[in-house]
Amino acid sequence: MTPTILAALILAAPQPEPAFSYDKPFVYNSAGNLKKDDFLFPIVASYFSPQMTKRNASFGLTDDITLESSLLLFISGITNMRIKMGMVNTPNFILALAPELVYTPDFDGRNQDYTILGISAPMSIKLKSGTFLTLTPGYRSAVKGVTNLSQPAAEDIIAFGINQPWIDIDYLRVIDNYSAVALQFHYTFPIGGTTLDSGALLEPLPTITGKMEYLRAVGASTRIGVAILYNPLWIPLDRVAPEGRPDADFLPQVSVWWRIPVGKKKAKPQKNEGRASSQPNARSKSSATNRLRSAPIALPIPTATSAPAAPPAAPTPEPAPQADPLPLPEPEPQPTPPNPGDK
């Protein structure tokens, strides 16, 4: 892919939904975890180096547990796994614990397989909206096989921060919903050491590496990262690459990964259920109206505005029969006036 095509793909691709949040940091640059059943599948193009293998494939077992593994190491036959377990998750602070395992088999039959165990504690702090700082102290220990190796082979492994404490510092700045800038700094402390079975003592060495990366969303689930790696071969300070070995202060890296939800999608509850239930009735009324209009003889089409028929009037009750009036009393007889002729 030429730079021109890559630039056109980044700038012209549709972005239907936000890829980077102003409230939560991206999972690769922080202590955050993936959501349950989310899967990030990466492809990295760069010179083979520890920083190249850190762009891991990730799968969300739960909302607080993410399983990570380097696909490149798996293809080469190396068993590797890291489990990031969320311990504290607040709007401004995230803390996780991440135990890890690396086992390198010996396919040549020389009894030179080795096992490395490690643990780290990523801590992400939200400095302000869209700005996050992550500190990741950790330690890796060679529990089997490294002391059996020759001194040059053992030094190549110890140079990657084995049997020494180390710290990663990640700075993530969200530019907008679809792009971000990430800076990373790694330092291996010169503490500890390794004694081989031959009696040789490998002194601890300080190692500094770094990365500048531009992250861009392409479409709904694709992400692209363009980075410059500092000291990608993890050469310790005050050391030079041995004769015949590659040496580089800076190397470019391009990564492409996809976010693939593998779980079943939950059915979204329907809104406005009352309105949705009335739609079939409206469709049935419309079909009945069309049938009336297409009839050979025009039939009256009922309208929704016609007033309903008035109920029949209730019968007026007949007045109750009145009782006969009482007879008037007869007048009392008046006394007969005296006859004036009677004396």
Would you write up a description of this structure?
- Residues 1-16 and 339-343 have low confidence and may be disordered.
- The longest helix has 21 residues, at 273-293.
- With 343 residues, this protein is mostly beta strands.
- It is elongated, with a radius of gyration of 44 Å.
- Helices cover 14% and strands 37% of the residues.
- The chain has helices at 3-12, 50-53, 71-75, 151-158, 273-293; strands spanning 38-45, 57-60, 65-69, 79-89, 93-104, 114-120, 123-128, 131-144, 164-176, 179-188, 194-195, 201-202, 207-218, 222-230, 250-261.
- It is built from five helices and 15 strands.
Distance from N terminus to C terminus (CA atoms, Å) equals: 165 Å
Unreliable parts: 1-16, 339-343
Radius of gyration: 44 Å
Largest sheet: 13 strands, antiparallel
Provide mean pLDDT, rounded: 79
